[in-house]
Amino acid sequence: MRGVTETLRSRLWQAHTAEWWRTMANVSHDADPVERVVELHLPSRLGYEKVAMDAAASVARRMGFSADRVDALRTALAEAVTNAIEHGNAHNADTRVLVILTVRPSELVVSVADQGFKPIDKAQIAPAPSIEDSFSRADKGGWGIWLIRELMDEVEFTTAPTGGNQVRMVIHLEKQS
Amino acid sequence: MLDDDLSVHIREREGVAIIDLIGDVTTFAEEKITGAYNEVSRRGARNILLNFRQNDYIKSAGIAILIGVVTEVNRRNQRLAVSGLSQHFQKIFRMVGLAQYIDIYQDEDEAIRGLTAAMT
């Protein structure tokens, strides 16, 4: 009986995952046909964010972004993928993080989506943290989303049609510093 | 490739306790960094240098770890400096506010000169 239950649970999960990918694929492929799109499907395991960082950096360099903007992109993307692995997908080995890099003439759009085990904490999105407050708090974290906002030109947090978290980040080519 | 890539070593130079941080500073680094800081403090260090090397990557979790070290440094009236950070991470240290509490030097030699000058 337990075996049957496990099999059923596994099949339900596979169906849910397949639906998630179908929906995400539709979301990602509604782009202009002239755009160039790179998709990464990453395991929900810390460390794989480095694969996304390297891929995004390679694309950004080829687009002509300066070294400091590439560094900013790497840091922002690392934070977004780490959030997806740790929070959105809760380290579940059966889940994936979807990273979509969309190359446009004057910008690079980077979307990170998880499978939404845990919705993003809206309270973490808005406020700018203060280091002085951190000194008196046991938890000195909470800098990730703030860093993403500071380093990217546009940032939007949304919920995917499947219920997962999505972060859409844009970095503009003309804003070289 | 994807696992914990940070090596931490302690040494002393001209009265400065140096903690070499070689590799990426991520969630996994807390025990190593706070352990090294506690060890040099136990040995009586007043001037501490976090010497970053080959740091491709410092995450927000790593920033939180460093804020934890700064909290203790302030409480114990120690002096904390960093060296070897890339321009990008120097900028992030300034954005976060860490630069108000940590002296930032380009390399170890410059940090030793700065810290020893402050001792006299």
Please specify the SSE layout and strand pairing.
The complex is a heterodimer of chains A (177) and B (120).
Chain A: H1 2-28, E1 36-43, H2 49-63, H3 67-88, E2 96-104, E3 107-113, H4 122-125, H5 131-136, H6 144-151, E4 154-159, E5 165-172
Chain B: E1 7-13, E2 16-22, H1 30-42, E3 47-53, H2 60-75, E4 79-83, H3 87-96, E5 103-105, H4 108-119
Parallel strand pairs in B: 2-3, 3-4, 4-5
Antiparallel strand pairs in B: 1-2
Compact overview of the structure:
The complex is a heterodimer of chains A (177) and B (120). Chain A has 177 residues and is of the alpha+beta class.
Verbal overview:
The complex is a heterodimer of chains A (177) and B (120). Chain A has 177 residues and is an alpha+beta fold. Chain A has one domain: Heat Shock Protein 90, CATH 3.30.565. Chain A is built from 6 helices and 5 strands, in the order H-E-H-H-E-E-H-H-H-E-E. Chain A has helices spanning 2-28, 49-63, 67-88, 122-125, 131-136, 144-151, and strands spanning 36-43, 96-104, 107-113, 154-159, 165-172. A 5-stranded antiparallel beta sheet of chain A has the order 1-2-3-5-4, covered by helices on one side. In chain A, helix 2 (49-63) runs antiparallel to helix 3 and helix 3 packs antiparallel against helix 6. With 120 residues, chain B is of the alpha/beta class. Chain B has one domain: STAS domain (Transcription Regulator spoIIAA). Chain B contains 4 helices and 5 strands, in the order ββαβαβαβα. Chain B has a 5-stranded mixed beta sheet with strand order 1-2-3-4-5, sandwiched between helices. The longest helix of chain B is centred in the middle third of the chain and has 16 residues, at 60-75. The N and C termini of chain B lie far apart (44 Å). At the A-B interface, helix 3, helix 5 and helix 6 of A face helix 2 and helix 3 of B.
